[in-house]
Amino acid sequence: MLSPSALSAPLLFALAPLASAAPEKAQEEATPLEQLSELEVPALEDSGAAFFELHVDEGEHFLGQRIRLRLVFGIESSLQDENLIQLFQQRLGVPVQVSAPWLGALDCTTDWAAPTPESMSDGVSFVLNGQIAWGNQAGSRTIDTRPYRVFKYETSFTPTCAPRLVLPEASLRFASATEFRADLFGRNAAVDRTEQRASASSLTIEVAPLPEANRPVEFIDAIGTFTIDAQLDETRVEAGTPVMLTLLVRGTGNLESLTAPRLERSAFHQLGANRHFDGDTLELSYQLIADQPGTYRLPETSLAYFDPTPPGSYRTVSTGAFQVHVLPCEPEPAPLPAITLLPPRPKPPADPLWPIALAAAALLALLLLSQPDRASER
User: Fold this and answer.
1) Which uninterrupted H or E stretch holds 138?
2) What's the first-to-final CA gap in the chain, in angstroms?
3) Deepest of 10, 87, 102, 242, by most Cβ within 10 A of its Cβ?
């Protein structure tokens, strides 16, 4: 919640021009981004050339709640793109430099987030704290009959301290010219370059602790508005075969950092879990298994959260339950009878006398063949 002083005075500070410098080069002498340093600019009077605002969501804010912060700045429509001087060597969508050194590193805050070019269909680049940042075009606005082109940069954070949080001042700077002339090198140089600057005052946010009254037992740390759905990949499985339960939590708030809801006890026990966040959905996956056959009820899962929408209250959303049939394991087929291979029959040992017997047989044969020749000689 904004402080009364912040509510009574709008966070609107017009830019004022510095005294025009002598003619100098413009685009060709742009500062390298890595050499960026804040220029010393004296106090300026209201010129109405631009405005710069800080905004947070209206209503009461609580510890642990994700708070959306918007930096909104506008440049007078009469200053067309060709009048704005590129301050750096890298060409920017809108050549302004925003300085808010506390952004992302403020005491009593955590979980700062920033948009990315992929998440914006009409993102425009500018310099924020010495780095390229991406914002959005946010239409136009008329202030005291003067039209402005409006740009918006959005981030969010979580407060960790109560009872109040102070966002310090922020400033914006850019340069413009109405007349350009080619220099000796043929490059475009501003003749009447004018430095412009705006600042937004500090912003005080009242931060309250979460109420104790009516806090559900299941509540852990979810703050925002959420829905929850569940999916089960199988409802008939064999005992000992895991199933996958997936919880899909959607909504706005501390979705990325919230603690996963507890699963109710059942016949299933948990083997493992997975967590995946993709921007607007938190996906929680659980691998569950039942060891004994039967028909079991997988209970609903509840998510208790605090909804900061006025008047602020605790709410609970739940998934449906599942009925799972766990079947007996099919018996394994009987093994084939084992085949025993007999060892090969050993060969009889070799007779060491067989060469002698063979020689004797050969000698006897020769003797018998020689007997007829002797008879004829007689």
Assistant:
1) strand 131-143
2) 154
3) 87
Contact criterion met (CB below 8 Å) for 109 and 165: yes
- Look at residues 116, 152, 125 and name the one whose alpha carbon lies nearest to residue 136: 152
- The CATH number of the domain covering residues in 222-327: 2.60.40
Q: What is the DSSP string of 57-122?
A: -SS-EETT--EEEEEEEEEETTS-GGGBPP-BSS--SS--EEE-TTTT--TTEEEEE---GGG-TT
Please report which residue ranges of the chain form alpha helices under DSSP H: 4-8, 354-377
Written as one string, the DSSP assignment of 1-20 is -B-HHHHHS-S----EEPPP
* Short-list 364, 222, 373, CA closest to 284: 222
User: If you compute the radius of gyration of the chain from its CA atoms, what whole number of angstroms results?
Assistant: 43
Cβ atoms of residues 278 and 263 within 8 Å? no
| Beta strands 61-62 and 203-208, pairing class | parallel
The token pair that represents 303 in the structure block: 């998510």
- Does this model's pTM top 0.85? My answer is no
Give me the residue spans of the domains in the chain: 4-208, 222-327
pLDDT in tens, 304-314: 999 999 889 99
What's the token pair of residue 268? 């299933």
Query: Which residues does residue 191 pair with via DSSP β-bridges, in sequence order?
Result: none
Beta bridge partners of 97: 127, 173
Condensed to tens digits (0 to 9), the pLDDT of residues 146-185 reads 899 999 999 999 999 989 999 999 999 999 888 888 888 8
pLDDT tens by residue, 267-283:
999 999 999 998 889 99
Distance CA 2, CA 166 (A): 10
Contact 223, 249 (CB under 8 A): no
Whether residue 66 contacts residue 254, with contact meaning beta carbons closer than 8 Å, is answered with yes
Q: Which amino acid is at 243?
A: V
Strand 313-318 relative to strand 302-307: parallel, antiparallel, unpaired? antiparallel
- The encoded tokens of residue 361 equal 């047989």
**CA 174 to CA 127: how far, in whole Å?**
10
Asked if residue 238 lies in contact with residue 41, where contact means CB atoms within 8 angstroms, the answer is: no
- Asked whether the beta carbons of 267 and 221 are under 8 A apart, the reply is no
